[in-house]
Amino acid sequence: SRVLECQGLPIVNGQCDPYATVTLAGPSRQVLSEAKKTKVKKKTNNPHFDEVFYFEVTRPSSYNKKSHFDIEDVDEVDKMEIRVDLWNASNLKFGDEFLGELRLPLKFLRQSSSYEAWYFLQPRDNGNKSLKPDDLGSLRLNVVYTEDHVFSSDYYSPLRDILLKSADVEPVSASAAHILGEVCREKQEAAIPLVRLFLHYGRIVPFISAIANAEVKRTQKLFASRDPNTIFRGNSLTSKCIDETMKLAGMHYLQVTLKPIIDEICQVHKPCEIDPVKLKDGENLENNRENLRQYVDRIFTVITKSGVSCPTVMCDIFFSLRESAAKRFQGDLDVRYTAVSSFIFLRFFAPAILSPNLFQLTPHHPDPQTSRTLTLISKTIQTLGSLSKSKSANFKESYMATFYDYFNEQKYADAVKNFLDLISSSGRRDHKSIEQPILLKEGFMIKRAQGRKRFGMKNFKKRWFRLTNHEFTYQKSKGDHPLCSIPIENILAVERLEEESFKMKNMFQVIQPERRVLYIQANNCVEAKDWIDILTKVSQCNKKRLTVYHPSAYLNGHWLCCKATADNTPGCTPCTGGLPANIQLDIDGDRETERIYSLFNLYMPKLEKMQEACGSKSVYDGPEEEEYSTFIIDDPKETYKTLKLIIEGVGTLEQEHAQYKRDKFKKTKYGSQEHPIGDKSFQTYIRQQSEISAHSI
Question: Which DSSP letter does residue 435 get?
Answer without folding.
Answer: S
